[in-house]
């Protein structure tokens, strides 16, 4: 069952029909779904209207497994979506992968791209993920930011111009799979990079107070 | 352009024509300034929403002395026409607009569509960072009519006194108390999910056209607010989580619709959701 924009809907529908699924595509989805107990919802899009539509349908059909095809989801978005959905794939995923995700959802198995699963696997762990390599100096920057340092202040301490510092941090955020500072610090915390036992900071960067190094994102 | 004819909302075409005018200072306000350094409206200066507009130690926006110092560093005087734009649906720029309005800066505009509109239209971007001559900006006095304090919220808006309305500008999922974002772990109850009793939900992004990120036509905006109980004489308090999204909705209501009785609760859900023994609905 799909509520998607037309092009993707036609493509996904064709794929699933070839797999033998019975597809429903009602005009008035919310009314249709009430009381019918659908097995799997396939949703394309993750913009606010799609989020609202998905939330409404999932409230009406709480037992259904939901497969979301999202546009360029970040690790943070994968995490948020997986709180309520069964599978999340990028919208550009091959149709074979969509079929696998739906088959898994049918059997109450979750599906994520391997890169996303690896990125999320740091949750709850204190050890850095092998997929993310952060230099000790960069870990020090992250700890300083988590402790409330400004980027301009960090630049002064580390001997960079603000432009250079922002660019270095931007690359570091991207390396962590994050779109911005807050998301990067949440991710770094989950990877154990904000821990005082993580690799030491650059000697020129003030080390945050141990008791507060992770306070801003976890406590 | 003098203060009495400054429009709160200007177009990218206006910006292209006036960015270099004497007396105009263009500020790009982003979640942080990394994108600015990759390219910006020629002549614009960077403002980092987190670092420049917030107090370094206590919780809250920059106080009057800090804001005066910042504006002085940016070469802004009380008569400078400050023109704001930014990324992320212009929310950070709208937040800066609200803050400057709160501190009584007169000539002030927000660029409709923000940085995205400028880029989509293929307008020029520069990597040159201007170095303005510092200016003297006297310590401003706050304009309390655009701000709702925690006490305002608890004493007037949450009890639902006649003639008041609350608008929650977060996503529907946040409003309903699902899908905690980032640091909110409901099980710890350090900040609970949900919304203020009586608050109506209007996702701030909904006031923008999805494709252009410009504000929707005025009749549509009026209808959105009217549908949520906002009448011409209603005192409205708006909140989100950190006060940037609510600033965008405040701008739509106060500056575009022209509803003078709109207050931004900058404590937001980050504050209210952490208070002990206050009513919360889910």
TrEMBL record, chain A:
<dbReference type="GO" id="GO:0006355">
    <property type="term" value="P:regulation of DNA-templated transcription"/>
</dbReference>
<protein>
    <recommendedName>
        <fullName>HTH luxR-type domain-containing protein</fullName>
    </recommendedName>
</protein>
<feature type="region of interest" description="Disordered">
    <location>
        <begin position="197"/>
        <end position="219"/>
    </location>
</feature>
<dbReference type="InterPro" id="IPR016032">
    <property type="entry name" value="Sig_transdc_resp-reg_C-effctor"/>
</dbReference>
<dbReference type="InterPro" id="IPR036388">
    <property type="entry name" value="WH-like_DNA-bd_sf"/>
</dbReference>
<dbReference type="GO" id="GO:0003677">
    <property type="term" value="F:DNA binding"/>
</dbReference>
From TrEMBL, chain B:
<dbReference type="InterPro" id="IPR051126">
    <property type="entry name" value="Thiosulfate_sulfurtransferase"/>
</dbReference>
<feature type="domain" description="Rhodanese">
    <location>
        <begin position="160"/>
        <end position="281"/>
    </location>
</feature>
<keyword id="KW-0808">Transferase</keyword>
<dbReference type="InterPro" id="IPR036873">
    <property type="entry name" value="Rhodanese-like_dom_sf"/>
</dbReference>
<dbReference type="InterPro" id="IPR001763">
    <property type="entry name" value="Rhodanese-like_dom"/>
</dbReference>
<keyword id="KW-0677">Repeat</keyword>
<feature type="region of interest" description="Disordered">
    <location>
        <begin position="124"/>
        <end position="145"/>
    </location>
</feature>
<dbReference type="Pfam" id="PF00581">
    <property type="entry name" value="Rhodanese"/>
</dbReference>
<feature type="domain" description="Rhodanese">
    <location>
        <begin position="20"/>
        <end position="127"/>
    </location>
</feature>
<protein>
    <recommendedName>
        <fullName>Sulfurtransferase</fullName>
    </recommendedName>
</protein>
<dbReference type="GO" id="GO:0004792">
    <property type="term" value="F:thiosulfate-cyanide sulfurtransferase activity"/>
</dbReference>
<feature type="compositionally biased region" description="Pro residues">
    <location>
        <begin position="131"/>
        <end position="141"/>
    </location>
</feature>
<dbReference type="InterPro" id="IPR001307">
    <property type="entry name" value="Thiosulphate_STrfase_CS"/>
</dbReference>
């Amino acid at each position: 069952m799909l509520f998607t924009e037309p092009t993707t809907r036609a493509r996904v529908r064709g794929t699933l029909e070839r797999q033998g699924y019975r597809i429903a595509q009602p005009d008035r989805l919310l009314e249709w779904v009430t009381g019918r107990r659908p097995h799997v919802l396939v949703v394309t899009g993750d913009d606010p209207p799609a989020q609202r539509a998905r939330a409404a349908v999932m409230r009406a059909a709480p037992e259904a497994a939901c497969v979301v095809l999202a546009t360029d989801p970040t690790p943070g978005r994968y995490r948020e979506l997986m709180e309520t959905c069964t599978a999340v794939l990028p919208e550009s995923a091959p149709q074979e992968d969509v079929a696998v995700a739906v088959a898994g959802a049918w059997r109450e198995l979750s599906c994520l791209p391997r890169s996303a699963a690896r990125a999320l696997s740091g949750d709850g762990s204190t050890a850095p993920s092998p997929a993310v390599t952060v230099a000790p100096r960069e870990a020090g920057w992250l700890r300083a930011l988590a402790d409330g340092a400004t980027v301009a202040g960090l630049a002064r301490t580390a001997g960079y111009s603000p432009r250079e510092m922002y660019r270095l941090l931007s690359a570091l955020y991207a390396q962590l799979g994050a779109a911005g500072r807050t998301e990067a610090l949440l991710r770094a915390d989950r990877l154990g990079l904000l821990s005082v036992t993580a690799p030491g900071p650059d000697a020129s960067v003030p080390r945050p107070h141990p008791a507060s190094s992770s306070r801003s994102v976890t406590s | 352009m003098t203060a009495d004819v400054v429009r709160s909302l200007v177009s990218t075409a206006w910006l292209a024509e006036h960015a270099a005018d004497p007396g105009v200072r263009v500020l790009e306000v982003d979640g942080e300034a990394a994108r600015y350094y990759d390219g910006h409206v020629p002549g614009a200066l960077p403002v980092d929403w987190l670092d420049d507009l917030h107090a370094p130690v206590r919780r809250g926006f920059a106080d009057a002395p800090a804001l005066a110092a910042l504006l002085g560093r940016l070469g802004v005087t009380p008569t400078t026409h400050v023109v704001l734009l930014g990324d992320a649906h212009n929310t950070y720029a709208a937040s800066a607009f609200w803050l400057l309005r709160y501190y009584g800066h007169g000539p002030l505009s927000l660029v409709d569509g923000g940085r995205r509109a400028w880029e989509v239209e293929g307008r020029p971007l520069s990597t040159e960072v201007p170095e303005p001559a510092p200016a003297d900006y006297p310590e401003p006095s706050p304009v309390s009519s655009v701000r709702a304090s925690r006490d305002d919220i608890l004493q007037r808006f949450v009890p639902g006194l006649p003639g008041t309305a609350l608008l929650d500008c977060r996503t529907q999922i946040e409003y309903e108390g699902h899908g905690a974002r980032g640091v909110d772990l409901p099980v710890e109850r350090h900040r609970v999910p949900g919304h203020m009793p009586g608050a109506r939900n209007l996702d701030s992004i909904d006031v923008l056209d999805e494709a252009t990120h410009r504000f929707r036509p005025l009749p549509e905006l009026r209808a959105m607010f009217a549908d949520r109980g906002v009448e011409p004489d209603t005192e409205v308090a708006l909140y989100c989580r950190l006060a940037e999204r609510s600033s965008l909705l405040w701008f739509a209501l106060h500056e575009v619709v022209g509803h003078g009785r709109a207050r931004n609760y900058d404590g937001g859900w980050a504050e209210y959701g952490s208070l002990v023994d206050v009513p919360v609905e889910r």
